Amino acid sequence: MLSSIIWTPLIFGLIGLLVPRRFVAWVAGLGSVVTLGLAIAVLIGWNSGGGMQYVTDVSWIPGLGIDYSLGVDGISIFLVLLTAAAWVPAVFFSATRGVEKSAGLYYLMLLAGETATLGAFLAQDLILFVLFFDLMIVPFYFLFGIWGKDRDGVKASAAVLKMIVFTLIGSLLMLVGAIAAGVIAADGGQLTFSIAEITAKGLPEGSQNWIFWFFAAAFLVKMPAFPLHGWMPDAYRAAPLPALAVFSAVLSKVGAYGFLRVVLPMLPDATELFQTTMLILAIAAIIYGSAMAFTKLDLRLILGFSSVAQLGFITAGIFALDDSGAQGAVLQMVNHGLVVVPAFLIVALIAERTGSEEIGSMGGLAKRAPVFAAIFLVVTMATLALPASANFIGEFYILNGIYGQSAALAIIASSGVALAAFYALRMYQRTMHNPLPEGADSREISLRDAVAVVPLVLCVVVLAFCPQLVLSGSEPAVENTVNVTLEGAK
Amino acid sequence: MIFNAPEIDYAGLSPVIAMTTGLVLVVLAAVFDPVKRFGPALALLTLAATAGLMIWQWDNPAELVAGQLRIDGLAITLSLLAVVSAAIAVLLSLGDPAEEQAGRSDYLALLLGSVLGMVILAQATNLISFFIGLELLSIPLYALCGTNMRRRESLESGLKYLIIGSLGSATLLYGMALLYGASGATGFNAIAEGLRSGDGMLSDSLTLVGVGLIAVGLAFKVSIAPFHQWTPDVYQGAPTPVTAFMAVATKAAAFAIFIRFFLVALEPLADQWDVMLAALAALSIVVGNVGALAQTSLKRMLGYSGIAQAGYMLAGIVVATQAGIDALVFYLGAYVAMNMAAFAALVAHERHTGFSDEIATLRGLGRSNPALAWPLTIAMLALSGLPPTVGFIGKLYLMQALIEADWTWLAVMIALGSMISLGYYLRVVATVWMSPEGESGESGRTKSPWFLVGPALLATAATIFFGVIPQPLVEFAQHAGNAITTLV
After folding, report:
1. pLDDT in tens, B402-432
2. pLDDT of B1
């Protein structure tokens, strides 16, 4: 079942290479919808108290002790759903705009990216996880490089090179860390890379410390977290928007997910040792990301730096090592993903109306487009975590968790909430209000674009009213992870 | 007086016999006009027969020719890799100016002669057969590098390789003489015994200098830094099919003797040479990867990348465990697939560009000739160690062997090297796919003949296949590792 979720997008992507050009988008769209259907089917048959479910465990490379082992629990199920849900509008939006060159290849890469991301969320073998984690970046390298645009003298090919080098610096070190974890835990016995078994065997404290940083390097770059975000601005500016939407919404979450899935339970001593360091890094990311988002004029960068800040919150929630913080982090991962996809697609719509992505030269788009403005308003309010939005609840849980560790850090982190209001409202005002500049066109959102954007916005609204959908589902798994970590550290 | 001829195991010797016979037939065929044009077919047939006979002997390890040679898992696996790369090189040479100028049969005979040297080298268990195999491998290669007689670079490359190669051989030979003096034996097992039994022999300066000189000589052959300077020049100047053969097959054969010599003959000294080889490996990884960054010629870049890859592989010998040998042989298998995909695509591409291998000529290849662009792209991704290719699994295997044997810092070196390597491998990918529309030099699509595209696609398919289902190649590699473990 889980295998079919992982491989369906790739198979449809490959079929897309074989069919005539005009059907390619249909095949890709069908692939993403089928994947979403499968993900929903998994959710229906899933029960929140059941631990790891739908387990697949086949020996893959027996000579190296690596298994093809998959499973889904309360932490991953919502991220799998988010992934499947995020890809549908991205494919749909690309299809309505048309792909200017090699459409078959474009959709293959987009769907291969979905396969790799789902694989990373579902893998229960450490090496398999690293493999999917590395694999994620390859299709996006091509998507951003081939279909991206050169901007302000920065070539798309240079921007993606920077991105992939940054990412792989982290993930190659993670590979060393993953192998070391398996080898050291085996201690001369039967070699296995099963995350659960390595956790059960435990690792000596000294090894945990360096393995921790090898993993942290990979995850922090992926998020991206301050100060490892250097690749982000150029890559974000080069990327085609539908691909960027899923990239920002989902791939960044894999880093946070990795902390929760791998680092916390497997390296409890190191986690406790470096807890304060990680909290400070996370809070630095919140402040830095918010401040940068406030100073940037490019819509992509505003959203990019706001993601840095949001992922700072998520990291802080995870490293609060507290049920409340971790649950808030899981909820916030889902929230942020759901908000970012429509946000980037709206950027594309705004750019079509004004011919620019700089908020300095915009304004008045709300004039003849009340529905469009309303959709954007919902997204903005969710970004700034207005009370009654699910983001508010997520951030509340997270701050609550941090407060348990350190009141001072919680107070500093909460300033991030206030800063978010600044940059989010500034973004909304500059684009939607004020007089309409010449050459810009205030036009209502078309039906086909609404079909791409609205379902996710509805999800945001629904989640605002019933955050329990995610919170109660993830509770047992999150509590279990946190307990394993705290007990392991004793 | 009764003369006792030595017992000859004809079954075990059959690959060498087949290879030699084929070589003679190819030379003879040149004399008779009607059969002349079947030279390549004959060469392929010879290689196929040799491979077939080796597979036949897969599970029959045996001492041959009074202990001069030994056919076992290590010899068979690595000779097979060399034979496969030679077969691909024969296909890539079809219609190449080098092959035509040198006279087709002469060219093929040189190639087969070199392969014979590799087969013998992979089986050698004695200093004498070691040296004979190595020279038989090298001398035809010197000539092959210069076969494109109308190009200065080709002649220069041949001469350069001859001079440096001879220096390497001389160093090696001197080392062998010293080691013989120290241990009193030429057979690998006997050397090990001599070193073990001799009093204070293990720290004797005569032994150590001998070992050092042999290591230097071998390092020349597999282009390990700091004995690598010839590599980029020779790779660039030689006709590209020869470069492909030299880069891949030579490494397989030279690493076979590297493994056998160091892990069998010098096994008692393992504590002393492992640090030395680790330092060489680390240096190669750095020098190769950094050197490749600045290259504009694809062949030079692949030359430097070969130095780095040799460094990764040498790490497999450093650990001196079965896992290390398995990982090395696996990586060599991966190396054959990845490099052949790249070189085959390059050979085909060169026919359209007037034999220029500048990376800039690859602009827009993704649109003009996808059948070459894909093999090149996947080869580059694999060489940099990205999944889902065999390159990723190969690095994983090496790192695992290193970490198991407490050489974690060397595993980190491999990781760091791979990071640097992204800088140049991905530049090729970017040139192929991400250059702006207007800049592509040629307009329209180009098509390449089947005997160039076929090997490229085949090697690409292997690169992906063994990346997704690596177990068959793992078992292949373990066959080599087992052979050495049973010997020591």
Report:
1. 999 999 999 999 999 999 999 999 999 999 9
2. 63
Q: Is the pLDDT of residue B444 over 70?
A: no
Enclosing H/E stretch for B302: helix B298-318
pLDDT for res B488: 63
Which bin fits B68, alpha (ψ -120 to 50), beta or left (φ > 0)? alpha
Mean pLDDT is highest, among A153-157, A213-217, A385-389, for: A213-217
Predicted confidence band of residue B443 (pLDDT cuts 50, 70, 90): low
Q: And the tokens for B154?
A: 């080709």
Nearest to A267 by CA among A216, A314, A328: A216
Strands (E) across A24-113 are located at: 53-61, 66-72
CA angle B452, A102, A247 (to 5 degrees): 115
CA–CA separation, B374 and B465 (whole Å): 15
Least confident among A282-286, B22-26, B259-263, B444-448: B444-448
Residues 6 or more apart whose Cβ sits within 8 Å of residue A265 = A195, A199, A481, A484, A485, A488
Look up residue A339 and give its two tokens.
């908000």
Single pTM value for the model: 0.93
Q: B291: helix, coil or strand?
A: helix
Record the tokens describing residue B80, joined without a space.
């097979």
Give the pLDDT mean for A58-63.
89
Is A61 in Cβ contact with B385 (below 8 Å)? no
Distance from the Cα of B433 to chain A's closest Cα (Å) equals 6
Centre a 10 Å sphere on the Cβ of residue A448 and count the other Cβ atoms it contains. Answer: 12
Instruction: Using alpha carbons, list the distances in angstroms from residue A369 to A37, A457, B406.
Output: 33, 17, 65
Torsion of the alpha carbons at B453, B457, B463 and B466, rounded to the nearest 10: -140
pLDDT of B215 = 93
Burial of B32 (0-12, 13-18, 19+ CB in 10 A): exposed
Mean pLDDT within A273-295: 92
Determine which of B322, B400, B425, B475 to mutate to test the interface with A (most A C-beta atoms within 10 Å): B400
Do residue A131 and residue B478 have CB atoms under 8 angstroms apart? Answer: no
Which H or E run includes B431? helix B408-433
**B474 → closest Cβ in A64, A132, A146:** A64
The secondary structure of residue A72, as a DSSP letter, is: E
Alpha helices, DSSP H only, in B62-200?
Answer: 73-93, 97-102, 104-123, 127-145, 152-183, 188-197
